[in-house]
Design a protein that fits this description.
The structure is a single chain. This protein is an alpha/beta fold. It folds into three domains: 186 residues, FAD/NAD(P)-binding domain; 151 residues, 3-Layer(bba) Sandwich (FAD/NAD(P)-binding domain); 73 residues, no CATH class. 26% of the residues lie in helices and 26% in strands. The chain is built from eleven helices and 23 strands. The strands form six sheets. Strands 1, 2, 3, 6, 7, 8, 9 and 20 form an eight-stranded mixed sheet that branches. A hairpin with a 4-residue loop joins strand 22 and strand 23. The longest helix is centred in the last third of the chain and has 19 residues. The protein is globular, with a radius of gyration of 22 Å. The protein starts with 9 loop residues before the first strand and ends with a helix. The N terminus and C terminus are likely disordered. Keywords: Oxidoreductase. It is an enzyme of class 1 (oxidoreductase). This is FAD/NAD(P)-binding oxidoreductase.
Length: 437
């Protein structure tokens, strides 16, 4: 076991001189993203003597909800990133390595560099895996010649480059045939692009098309109805049950499978001058191949109870966030609702108490419908019922919610959520009053 000086963090990296291959921690957290850091901060707020290690290979931590704003020219990508070291709480060991194999029967996580990390309790939250390779030709085409995606900080700036330099033609935006993080993101960028095309005077010679594998614009009917009106008013063509399967970059063609009403599938090819791709996604491969995954599930989500966030077969394992099987949208707002429940139940388990806390499925997807317009789509992800944190009708486009998305939510993420603090009290009351119109 690695002994740490009191209140001082330690990094274990691939080039460290480690005399043992086995190390042990009371709590091991796989993933140092939004979920991992938030849970760590909440745990230490309850008990600062806990022995915690985070397994996270990346040195940079991104505010991923900001990538849409990068693609729309509102943020610079540098505004969405911090050093991981600066976010990991003091007293926590950072194992800067990849988890590659899970052995929950023996309470072991194996890392890429050969460490066997033993645990008493495990929290699994490595985020989602972007599977560029599942669309033929996409890996070779992405980032040039009109092919882009806001699902990476590498390509999001290119989205803005394409939008602001667009001269007219065919602009296509896609939604894949898998669950994805932030289900509204593929169309948020479309509305911003549509707005900018109008400002640049090229919209009258531009065809904007949304190709989605879904059967409606959004999961919650009330919000979907609003978006139906938005696309109709803006003359955006929507092709439902339409799955992108290939990019032919040489000809600037996108190949789709279009499922018809009679369930037959027709292959169609659309020319593009610009295409924004939301790629297929899944849990990371090491989870798909582990005993923790939902049995016979192709996406590899961690099999947890949707109420308690405890694993359904391994009681000392918990999961939250994008890689979990929780049947709600994969957003940072959902994590903000999940983390306190998970932490309370984990601490209860550690003290042999019943797991009484319940996650109610709350999530939020700020639906940008243009510059200075946004629908704050809060809802119960289990029942698909609209909710609201504000004394306002949530089913409405508002300038005030754009201000919330642009200025308030990033601040909340960096200065409240990741520090395990709730965003409540006089400040939120001021925002409710100031921006209720």
């Amino acid at each position: 076991m690695v002994t740490l000086p009191e209140k001082q963090s330690q990094n274990i990296t691939s080039d460290s001189e480690i005399s043992v291959k086995k190390i042990h921690y009371q709590i091991v957290i796989i993933g140092g993203g939004a979920a991992g850091i938030t849970c760590t901060s909440l745990l230490l707020a309850q008990n600062d003597s806990l022995d915690i290690a985070i397994i996270e290979p990346e040195e940079k931590h991104y505010y991923q909800p900001g990538w849409t704003m990068v693609g729309g020219g509102v943020f610079q990508v540098e505004e969405t990133v911090r050093n991981e070291q600066d976010l990991i709480p003091q007293g926590v060991t950072w194992i800067k390595d990849y988890a590659v194999k899970l052995d929950p029967d023996n309470n072991i996580v194996l890392t890429k560099e050969g460490l066997e990390v033993e645990y008493n309790y495990l929290i699994v939250c490595p985020g989602i895996q972007i599977n560029w390779h599942l669309i033929k030709g996409l890996k070779e085409a992405i980032g040039k010649n009109g092919v882009t995606s806001n699902y990476s900080p590498i390509y999001a700036p290119y989205t803005w480059e394409l939008i602001q330099n667009f001269k007219g033609g065919n602009a296509i935006f896609t939604y894949p045939n898998t669950p994805i993080k932030c289900g509204g993101a593929p169309q948020k960028v479309m509305y911003m692009a549509d707005d900018m095309f109008r400002q640049l005077g090229v919209r009258d010679r531009t065809n904007v098309t949304y190709c989605t594998t879904l059967t409606k614009m959004f999961f919650v009917k009330e919000y979907s109805d609003i978006l139906d009106k938005v696309v109709a008013e803006r003359n955006i063509e929507v092709k439902f049950r339409c799955n992108l399967k290939e990019i032919k970059a040489d000809n600037k063609e996108a190949v789709f499978d279009l499922t018809k009403d009679d369930e037959t599938v027709e292959e169609i090819t659309l020319k593009y001058d610009m295409i924004h791709v939301a790629p297929p996604q899944s849990a990371p491969d090491f989870l798909k191949e582990s005993p923790l995954a939902v049995p016979n599930n192709p996406f590899g989500w961690v099999d947890v109870n949707k109420d308690t966030l405890q694993h359904n077969r391994y009681p000392n394992v918990f999961a939250l966030g994008d890689a979990s099987s929780l049947p709600t949208s994969k957003t940072a707002a959902a994590i903000r609702g999940q983390a306190p429940v998970l932490v309370a139940n984990l601490l209860a388990l550690m003290t042999s108490k019943p797991l009484e806390n319940r996650y109610n499925g709350y999530t939020c997807c700020p639906l940008i419908t243009g510059y200075n317009k946004l629908v704050m789509a809060e809802f119960d992800g289990y029942t698909f019922t609209p909710m609201s944190s504000f004394p306002l009708n949530p089913i409405k486009e508002r300038w005030s919610m754009w201000i919330m998305k642009k200025h308030i939510l990033p601040w909340v993420y960096w200065h409240r959520m990741l520090k395990g603090q709730q965003f409540e009290g006089n400040y939120i009351k001021f925002m409710q009053w100031q921006y209720k119109k």
